[in-house]
Each structure stands twice: as structure tokens, then as C-alpha cells.
Task: inverse folding
């Protein structure tokens, strides 16, 4: 006899005395489930048919292995094994499809029927499912890396009303991954190219655009009335704002986030499921988890994660399959590995817990440590671009060190202001080449790597060292607008 | 907590994700802790050994999210998952 634990899923816990985990002694999986139902008789009908077979919508896992047939008697148990009961919902949706009620009034033209014929053939979609898609209203926050594939697939799938929130203009650096936009749209609002692309792909749908930055003052108004939100934002304040606003409004949202070669996805905000804050109650200290602009990202990666988000949106609308709620999906492109982590609703969650302490939207910039005046690199002495320009013109004696990479130098540089390139990684070994008597100014793209360089030099005993605040981007903004940026 | 773990040390296999992988200088690290150590103790241990790891990451033991008070067992695979903002 092995001592094993059995995990009971949330919907069945009320039949197991409210417990999420029960320990039993058993030699086989079948025996373990037998012990479980002896302890909690009410569970038996939920797990087994009258014939004693596992019900169709109940999946049992031993570790990673799915046990469909309990007659697989050879499956011996060892001490510490974990058996998980996972409800699958094919054939019966535990989550009400938000668009279901409205779908009764939906009609299709012959052209539409042909357009969606490959959906109509699938029993899980069919006419009723396609009608739900057409009746559905999905809002995408961000028309960038994640928003692009998500919007394209949702438009193609026939989601009747697609909303897009974004305030950015298309930059040439976006085109490596943001498929909604093209080279001709550089410099124009992202929503213009997004609308053009989506309407060309599927003229049957209604595209609504909100050319604004989602903030506490407008979030409830913008998000209200949508069935579902797809979060493809690119910063922590917006992510916490989307979470809190969706929880307050009772709107589920499909989360996705990317970093270099890795991505995360989940479905948050379902009534029984966790929210983003159940997983990450507090934002990381500012500056420690870089964005795509600062860290770079593999261009194909948002194609995977954004598409996962689109699939979850479609499943939720159809009310089919097992939603990605209560699970965080982790994708690693380099290892080509998907794994998932179970995340439960945190009863102490400040927004979705039993006694929420947050009941209205807050200032998310301040919450994420990015509020007015709160500089990430406040500990580092800095000068502004205009001041450096004055020093340069006035013949001030200083040494300007650019700590970026050579390819960045080739895009734009401050050679005219006396810059010398020493990539950050080479700085420690080249410290001897720096003039300890001179005023040193460190510079990078946005001011974050050069702040690290200033800290390094100060630890090495340099005293007169400054960070060029905002990096070469600030120079391009304040001193030389003709300078190309990236 | 097993009796063996209570007496001696346990070893857990820590796996780093995304930015944590770069800061930790590798994908995995075996960490030895006193038996009965919690996730909070692991965090404190790592804070000391790897001060450059950003705080605020989530911890999963095996396949499930683990709260600070979760007691680690010998041989546990522990994933450290940072919040990621990119989109
Ligand atoms: Zn929550």
C-alpha cells in the first residue's frame, strides 16, 4: 500500500468536505479513487457512472500520465504519488458563453456561410458556434506583438465585434513582429493600419478603435460591455489595470506576455478562477524586468502566445474545451517546451479574494513605482540631454562613453558630442582607459544600461560620473529630432 | 514533511525562467536547505546567494503554484517564474 494524495478540482470540492487534497493508502489508482469516494460519498456520482466507469468529463492523472481506463491495473502507486482529478468540459461547458444569449438573433449571408464553412463542419463549432462568434464582442488591449496575431485570427474566425485600444504610432522596430502593420504605415497611428488590415481580411466584422492609452480614468468606460478582453499590453501598470478593471466588471480576460524567447498565457477573471494578482500580487521593482523595447524579443514568439490567446478567446465564446483558467502556460522557444503551473484563486487576493481590500481602480503608475518624479535610477547622478548639448557647445571638458552595442552605434550615435563606444560588457576590463580626473557621462539608448554603468564606475571609485537621462532617445527628442531612433 | 527531511538537509532542483535565468546565470540550480524549509526560506536563501535576482517572482513546486508557507520536500522541482510585461 502506498500513501498517495488526491487533488480534487474546485468544482468538486464541495462534495469532498471543501478539501483540495486528500491522502489515502492504496495500491492502484482505482483503489485510491475507491478510498476517496468511501470518505466522501457525495463524490461518487460525480466521478463514476452507474456502471462504475469514470464519467466522460472526468480526467484522472497520475503525475503526468493520463489514466483513462482504471482497468489499467498495472499502474502501481508509490509513496508520495499525486493523483489529480481534472474535469474536462468537452460536451458540457461549465462556463457560460457570454455571446450565447445574443447568438439566437444572428443570421448569415451565403457568402458568410462559405467563408466560415470550415468552422461549420466541426461539430464543436457548427452553426450555433459560428453564431456565437458573430454575436461576440472582444476587446484587445494593445495592437502590438500579441494583439496582432490575436486580432488577425479573431477577425478571420468571424468574431463579430472586435475592439482595439492603442495610442502608439507604427515604428519601424515594430515590424519585426507586429503583423497588423506594414512598412508603408510607419509613422501613422497603429489603429489605422490595424483597421485597414482587419477589414481587408474580413469585411463582415465590425472593428471599433479606441485611440487612447488605457488609464484608470477611462478603463471602466472602455472595457464595459465587452464579453471578453485580450490583454496584449506591454507594461505592468496597464496589466494590473486590465486585471483590476476586468475583475470589477466581471469580464474574463486572456492574459499573454512575452520576454525574449519565453512567453506566458492564462485565462483570468472567471468567477471560480484566479486573477493576475493571485499569481503576482505585487509588481516587480521598476526596471528589474525589462520590456521588449529594452530587452528585445524573438519576432515569432508573440505569434505563438498571441495565437494561444486567440484560441482561448474562441473556446470561451464557444463554451467548448477546457479553458486555460487556473493554469499558467509557460512557453520556452529555445527549449521548445510548453509547461503549465496550476494557479488557484487566492482567498486573500486583494481584488478577487474573499475580503477584497481594493474595490476601485488606483494609480497604476504609482503602484508600479513609476509615478511622477519616481525615477528608477534615482540613486544615480544624471544630466539631461539639453545640458549635455550645452556642455558640448561650450567646450566643457568631459568624456562621453556610449555603453551600447556596436550595431546600435551604427543606427545612431553621439560622436559629434565626443562619444566613445565601450559596450557595457567590456567596461570592467576597459576601466583603466578612462580618465579618473575627467567628468564622465555615460550614455545608452534609454538611460537604463548607462545607469548600471554609472553604478559600476562609482563602485570602482570614480566620483565625477553622470548618467545621460533618457539616453540617446532623449537627445533625439530634445536636441536633434533628425536623429534616427530605434 | 517526512521524518528523513526533518532530520537532515533537503535538496531541491530550482529552475529559472525568463529574466531570472539570465540573472541567475543558468537555467537550473540545486539548492540545499534544512529539512522543513518553506518557500519563504528558499526565497531568503536565494536573496542572499543571488542578490541580482529581481523580487516578485512566483514559485511553483512540481506543477502547482506554491505560497510562501508551503513546505518543501527533498527532491522537489521548484520553478521560479517572474512577471513578464512584454506584449
Ligand atoms: Zn485574484
Result:
Amino acid at each position: 500500500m502506498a500513501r498517495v494524495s488526491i487533488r480534487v478540482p474546485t468544482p468538486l470540492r464541495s462534495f469532498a468536505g471543501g478539501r483540495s487534497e486528500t491522502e489515502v493508502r492504496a495500491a492502484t489508482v482505482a483503489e485510491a479513487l475507491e478510498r476517496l469516494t468511501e470518505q466522501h460519498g457525495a463524490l461518487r456520482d460525480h466521478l463514476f457512472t452507474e456502471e462504475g466507469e469514470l464519467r466522460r468529463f472526468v480526467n484522472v492523472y497520475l503525475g503526468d500520465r493520463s489514466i483513462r481506463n482504471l482497468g489499467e491495473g498495472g499502474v502501481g502507486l508509490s509513496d508520495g504519488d499525486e493523483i489529480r482529478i481534472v474535469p474536462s468540459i468537452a460536451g458540457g461547458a461549465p462556463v457560460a458563453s457570454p455571446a450565447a444569449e445574443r447568438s439566437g438573433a444572428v443570421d448569415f449571408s451565403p457568402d458568410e456561410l462559405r467563408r466560415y464553412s470550415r468552422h461549420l463542419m466541426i461539430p464543436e463549432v457548427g452553426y450555433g458556434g459560428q453564431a456565437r462568434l458573430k454575436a461576440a464582442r472582444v476587446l484587445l488591449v494593445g495592437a502590438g506583438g500579441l494583439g496582432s496575431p490575436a486580432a488577425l485570427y479573431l477577425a478571420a474566425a468571424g468574431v463579430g465585434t472586435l475592439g482595439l485600444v492603442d495610442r502608439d504610432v507604427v515604428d519601424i522596430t515594430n515590424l519585426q513582429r507586429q503583423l497588423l502593420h506594414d512598412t508603408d504605415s510607419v509613422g501613422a497611428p497603429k489603429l489605422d493600419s490595424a483597421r485597414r488590415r482587419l477589414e481587408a481580411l474580413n469585411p463582415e466584422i465590425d472593428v471599433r478603435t479606441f485611440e487612447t492609452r488605457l488609464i484608470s480614468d477611462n478603463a471602466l468606460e472602455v472595457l464595459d460591455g465587452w464579453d471578453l478582453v485580450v490583454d496584449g499590453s506591454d507594461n505592468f501598470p496597464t496589466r494590473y489595470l486590465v486585471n483590476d478593471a476586468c475583475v470589477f466588471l466581471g469580464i474574463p480576460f486572456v492574459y499573454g506576455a512575452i520576454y525574449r524567447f519565453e512567453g506566458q498565457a492564462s485565462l483570468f477573471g472567471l468567477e471560480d478562477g484566479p486573477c493576475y494578482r493571485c499569481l503576482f500580487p505585487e509588481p516587480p521593482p521598476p526596471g528589474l524586468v525589462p520590456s521588449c523595447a529594452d530587452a528585445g524579443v524573438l519576432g515569432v514568439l508573440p505569434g505563438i502566445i498571441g495565437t494561444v490567446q486567440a484560441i482561448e478567446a474562441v473556446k470561451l465564446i464557444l463554451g467548448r474545451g477546457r479553458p486555460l483558467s487556473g493554469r499558467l502556460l509557460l512557453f520556452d522557444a529555445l527549449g521548445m517546451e510548453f509547461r503549465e503551473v496550476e494557479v488557484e484563486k487566492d482567498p486573500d487576493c486583494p481584488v478577487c479574494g474573499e475580503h477584497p481590500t481594493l474595490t476601485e481602480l488606483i494609480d497604476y503608475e504609482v503602484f508600479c513605482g513609476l509615478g511622477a518624479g519616481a525615477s528608477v535610477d534615482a540613486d544615480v547622478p544624471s544630466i539631461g540631454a539639453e545640458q549635455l548639448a550645452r556642455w558640448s557647445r561650450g567646450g566643457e571638458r568631459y568624456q562621453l562613453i556610449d555603453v551600447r552595442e556596436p550595431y546600435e552605434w551604427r543606427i545612431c550615435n553621439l560622436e559629434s558630442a565626443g562619444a566613445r563606444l565601450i559596450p557595457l560588457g567590456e567596461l570592467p576590463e576597459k576601466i583603466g582607459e578612462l580618465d579618473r580626473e575627467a567628468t564622465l557621462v555615460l550614455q545608452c539608448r534609454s538611460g537604463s544600461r548607462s545607469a548600471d554603468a554609472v553604478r559600476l564606475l562609482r563602485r570602482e571609485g570614480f566620483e565625477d560620473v553622470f548618467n545621460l537621462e533618457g539616453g540617446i532617445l532623449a537627445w533625439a527628442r530634445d536636441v536633434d529630432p533628425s536623429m534616427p531612433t530605434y | 514533511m517526512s521524518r528523513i527531511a526533518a532530520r537532515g538537509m533537503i535538496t531541491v532542483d530550482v529552475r529559472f525562467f525568463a529574466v531570472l535565468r539570465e540573472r541567475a546565470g543558468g537555467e537550473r540550480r540545486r539548492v540545499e536547505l534544512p529539512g522543513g524549509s518553506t518557500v519563504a526560506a528558499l526565497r531568503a536563501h536565494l536573496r542572499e546567494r543571488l542578490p541580482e535576482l529581481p523580487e516578485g517572482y512566483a514559485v511553483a513546486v512540481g506543477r502547482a503554484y506554491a505560497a510562501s508557507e508551503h513546505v518543501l520536500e527533498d527532491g522537489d522541482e521548484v520553478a521560479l517564474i517572474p512577471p513578464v510585461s512584454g506584449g
The mean pLDDT of chain B is 91.
